[in-house]
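User: Hi! I'm working on a homework problem where we have to compare a predicted structure to a textbook description. Could you give me the structure for the chain below?
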Amino acid sequence: MMKQIKTLLIAVVALLGFQTINAQAKTAHVDVQDIMAKMPAVLEAQNQLKKLSDTYTAEYKTMVDEYQAKLKKYDGEAATVTDAVNQTRQQEVQDMAKRIGDYQETAQKDLQKKEGDLMKPITEKVKASIQKVGKAKGYQYVLNAADLLLADGPDLTVDVKKDLGF
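Assistant: Happy to help. Predicted structure tokens:
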């Protein structure tokens, strides 16, 4: 009887030990920032955004130069023209200033939208790859290394890069 209780007690302790081990989730981490920084698709997206930004910047500079030239011309001629002409010119430069401000705001919104349009499929691809690699290696959780205070566990960054083809 004592031997049976001892065997039963050992079995219960072993069972509880196995449940504790199984209850611990397997976690790993990846450096998403490192993956994104070196991903060819991200570099191409950044080049596209730079070209678009340069186009907007050049157009903005042209508008500002035109505005400043008119302002200088109108200021130089203000004493020699009628009040009605000066008022018309003042309204014209105010309208130009508003158009320049509107253009800058629109350009900024367009750039943000374009960035979102370009980056969304890339981030989805990276996320899918992380999930694929994590599941293939038996991990229940894969965390971003940038958000961790301690990243001492398995690092799947190299495996995710390999899965993405670079």
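For your comparison, note the following. Residues 83-136 form the longest helix (54 residues). The helical segments are 2-23, 32-38, 40-77, 83-136, 157-164. Good luck with the assignment!
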